[in-house]
Amino acid sequence: MRGTGGRDVLITLVVAALLIWIMPTMIATYTLTVLVIYGMLGLSLGLIWGFGGILCFGQAAFFGLGAYTYAIAAINIGESTVPMILAVLVPALFAAILGAIMFYGRLMDVYLGVITLVVTLILFKFVNTTAGPQYVIGKARIGGYNGIPGFQTLNVPGDPGAYIWGDPFYYVCAVALVIVFLLVTWLLRSSFGRIAVGIRENEVRMALLGYDVAARKTVLFTIGAAIAGLSGALFANWSEIVTPSLFSLSQSAEIIIWCIVGGLGTRLGPILGAAGLAYLKFMLGQQSMIDNTLITGLILVLFVLFLPRGLVPAVATLWGRIVVGTRRRTQPRTMRRTRHG
Amino acid sequence: MDLSFVILVEVLYAVASLVLISAGLAVVFGMMKVINLAHGEFMMMGGYATITAANLGINVFVAMLVIAPLVVGLIGLVVERLVIRHLYGRLVDTMLATWGLSLMFIGLATMIFGNTTTGISTPITGFTVGDYQINGYNFFIIVVSVVLVLCMLAVLKGTRAGLIARGTMQRSDMAAALGYSPDRIYMATFFCGSALSGLAGAVLAPLVGLVPTSGGAYIAKAFITVIAGGPSLIAGLVSSATSFGLVSQIFTFTISPVIGEVVLLVAAVIVLRLMPQGITGRFFRGKL
User: Fold this and answer.
1) Neighbours of A215 (CB within 10 A)
2) Hey, is the C-beta of B217 within 8 angstroms of any chain A C-beta?
3) If you average pLDDT over residues B166-192, what whole number do you get?
4) How far, in Å, CA of B265 to CA of B224, rounded?
5) A111 touches chain B (CB under 8 A)
6) Mean pLDDT, to the nearest integer, of A118-147?
7) Does the first or last residue of chain A, that is N or C, have fewer Cβ atoms within 10 Å of its Cβ?
8) Which residue has better confidence, A83 or A253?
9) Residue in chain A lying closest to B88 (CA)
């Protein structure tokens, strides 16, 4: 595996560079930027759910938390470098605490889903009520359902006047996604990643082998939240306003749908699922004949019923069947048994 | 004196509405182990069925107590045959599929009724106790949920159908060996659960302005009530609804309604952390 690592990185970089270069000729960069950001968000859940077996119904909580942290910190500091770092750290810390509470309590599948869902709801409800002027963090009013507009957007580190927006911002997001993707790849190939997959497959066995399952799950959960927080901060820069809808259940639902459609247990699946479905939603938003939500729901139901493993694994299997004499697959194996959360 | 009576009524009302919201899910999740994330949308459709029927000139109580449960029960039947049937025993997959269904229902309702708030006025007038005004409809909800719990108890414990249903949920292979078709029993149970959701949505409809997304307001509450309740269906439902209703009303009165809601959710997280098997996993063991 170590020998092929360098080549894989090279291939990833070449493909990514080509895509980053070609895509703007097909889709406007403004739209493309948000697709890249959603791709990163999809990857964050794909990591903890697809490889860690942790079904988090509240990935939107970390996304929203990242966005809000960035917005509040940016207003107070007036420069974007520290807020970006904070936007990764705060959701990670929050996830570490939440994860420790859940995993050391040995909460499993459904209960995990319900607690993450409820925590997201608490955040959503709480942020919605903070419209009054008494809810202030430093110089930033939280603003309740109105959200926070008008914060300092991304700038060149150290120079608050040099904003990064438009095309350069797209390149920043795309490069960030590639870096995160490579980090996730590295993580999954390290012994930590392999043990995480082991825990997904059989938690009791891994515990009996002497691994601290609760600690490892907590760390993985924290890493996922950090990635989600980073994508949240980038999203805040893209939309230039943060609103409580970032925390909403439909946002959480969408992230889960991206992962299902793209394919669990793969790194590319959630990214492609996120970008593809977000683009589909964008296209559908331009017509008014059929309601958008209806189609999202239909896609989810059809995928669960007919293609529960998602597109990327299905295509990979098909490809494997076509190319006879398959080489040993370098991607981690997809889940064979039922998904457990 | 008057104040304490008002508070008592409010607490009872909070508990009753929690029972009502969660009853359908308790049957579908508690008995069948199907996590129905479309539960809130079933309630939403119950509300729309009531309003549509009432606008057509049908007596509002008939619309509420008969038509809405029937309509939603039938929708549930279709859903069970088309989707849920294929996913029994696959917990996470049912969860995702019903989430998809809930989005579809929201989309459908938006297309049919539009994204506007509709509602009907409460059919029962309020009255005053001392200096306070009490909504008479709250009493109706309390009565409905008490009757509902008693009926569920009677059906599950007293009738042969209830016995067969409970037996099938525990050991479907044994029920099949004894000559009952688990497939049809699951179907019938899902129908009952959906009808209960429809009833709840219908009864609560006059209190809220109905929008296609109103189901989302119920789903989390229903879920945590049922899951915190634990394995015993009715004892769990009543005990967790009582504790959550009490806690949230205390904070609603002392601080604000929003804090009450938040405290309810926090309480749920704490209960689940301390008692992962739910309240009846520790207390009232072996009760129905």
Assistant:
1) 13
2) no
3) 91
4) 8
5) yes
6) 84
7) N
8) A83
9) A305
Interface residue A107 vs chain B (CB under 8 A):
yes
B105 contacts on A by Cβ (under 8 Å): 297
- The distance from CA A136 to its chain's CA centroid, rounded to whole angstroms, is 28
CB contact (8 A) between residue B97 and residue A304: yes
Under an 8 A CB cutoff, do B107 and A291 touch?
yes
The radius of gyration of chain B from alpha carbons, rounded to an integer in Å, stands at 19
Tell me how close the Cα of A114 comes to any Cα of chain B, in angstroms. 7
CA gap A245, A241 in Å, rounded: 11
Mean pLDDT of chain A: 87
Chain A interface includes B107 (CB < 8 A): yes
**Which residues fall within 8 angstroms of residue A63, CB to CB, at 6 or more apart?**
A41, A91, A228, A229, A231, A232, A235, A246, A251, A255
What is the H or E stretch that residue A237 is in? helix A213-239
Q: Which of A292, A294, A305 sits opposite B108 (nearest CB)?
A: A294
Contacts of residue A217, defined as CB under 8 A and 6 or more positions apart, other chains included, come to A52, A54, A99, A103, A196, A199
Residue A258: what residue type? W
B1-43, pLDDT tens digit by residue?
Answer: 788 888 888 899 999 999 999 999 999 888 888 888 899 999 9
The string of pLDDT tens digits covering residues A139-190 is 888 888 888 988 888 888 888 888 888 889 999 999 999 999 999 999 999 9
Q: With a CB-CB cutoff of 8 Å, which residues 264-283 of chain B face chain A?
A: 265-266, 268-269, 272-273, 276
Closest chain B residue to the Cα of A341, Cα to Cα = B92
When pLDDT is cut at 50, 70 and 90, the band that residue A72 belongs to is: very high
Which among A110, A122, A340 has the least Cβ separation from residue B35? A110
Close Cβ partners of A124 (under 8 Å, ≥ 6 residues apart): A244, A247, A248, A249
Interface touch B100/A299, C-beta < 8 Å: yes
- At residue A341, the pLDDT reads 40
pLDDT greater at residue B177 or residue A118 = B177
Closest in B90, B91, B97 to A301, CB measured: B97
**pLDDT > 90? residue B44:** yes
- Measured between beta carbons, the chain A residues lying within 8 angstroms of B93 are 304, 308, 338-339
Rounded CA-CA distance A105/B273 in Å is 6
Contacts of B223 in chain A (CB under 8 A): 114, 117
CA dihedral A22, A26, A27, A32 (to 10 degrees): -20
**DSSP-assigned letters across all residues of A82-135:** HHHHHHHHHHHHHHHHHHHHHHHTT--HHHHHHHHHHHHHHHHHHHHTTTSTT-
In this predicted model, what pLDDT tens digit does every residue of A217-252 receive, in sequence order?
A: 999 999 999 999 999 999 999 999 999 988 887 788
In the block, tokens 């560079």 appear at A17
- Is the pLDDT at A336 greater than 50? The verdict is no
> Which of B36, B269, B274, B279 best tests the A interface by mutation, with the highest count of A CBs <10 A?
B269
pLDDT of residue A219: 96
Cβ pair A8, A330 in contact under 8 A: yes
Question: Is residue B54 scored above 80 in pLDDT?
Answer: yes
Q: Where are the domains of chain B?
A: 2-215
- The answer to whether residue B95 neighbours chain A at the CB level (below 8 Å) is yes
